[in-house]
Design brief:
Layout: H1 3-13, H2 18-25, H3 29-37, H4 45-54, H5 59-63, H6 68-77, H7 89-100, H8 103-126, H9 130-133, H10 138-148
Helix pairs in contact: 1-3, 2-3
């Protein structure tokens, strides 16, 4: 199913005519039909977002991305959120930018993101925690934490 098919399917599910949908996003019935027929393949973000909102869905869902990459990453990496979670503003902005990139640049973003995540994970593993890196008792760990977070020296 392509983007046009998903637009049409969602429009029909909501009982909207092409005129109704066009009125909601400031486009003509003919333009809506062009979207649905695939005549306009590269949908601009300024159209995609209002279109998704009018159809009570997400741009990712209209593009056919909802659940594909995200779901496999959740399963592969045990990410603690699900596809059904609402994305925050940063995630929305990143998705909008990503959709506008060529497939070559999308691949570069993915490669960079994976490298950045790997670096972050290595840095987190290297953070020292002297009291907790050895077999310290709870009392020794608390004492070490008290020293680390004692601001009296700076007063």
């Amino acid at each position: 199913m392509n983007t046009g098919d998903r637009i049409k399917q969602r429009r029909l599910e909501l009982g909207l005519s092409a005129d109704d949908l066009g009125a909601k996003i400031g486009k003509s019935r003919a333009t809506i039909y062009r979207y649905e027929n695939g005549d306009i393949e590269n949908m601009p973000t300024p159209v995609l977002e209002p279109l998704a909102k009018a159809l009570d869905t997400t741009p990712a869902d209209l593009m056919g991305w909802e659940g594909q990459c995200i779901k496999s990453n959740i399963e592969d990496r045990n990410i603690p959120w699900t596809v059904s979670d609402k994305p925050d503003n940063n995630q929305k902005e990143l998705n909008e930018i990503f959709l506008q990139l060529s497939s070559n640049n999308q691949q570069r973003v993915l490669t960079y993101s994976k490298t950045l995540l790997s670096t972050q994970q290595m840095e987190e593993e290297l953070l020292p925690d002297a009291a907790n890196d050895r077999n310290a008792t709870e009392e020794e760990k608390k004492h070490a934490d008290d020293i680390m977070f004692d601001d009296s020296e700076w007063e």
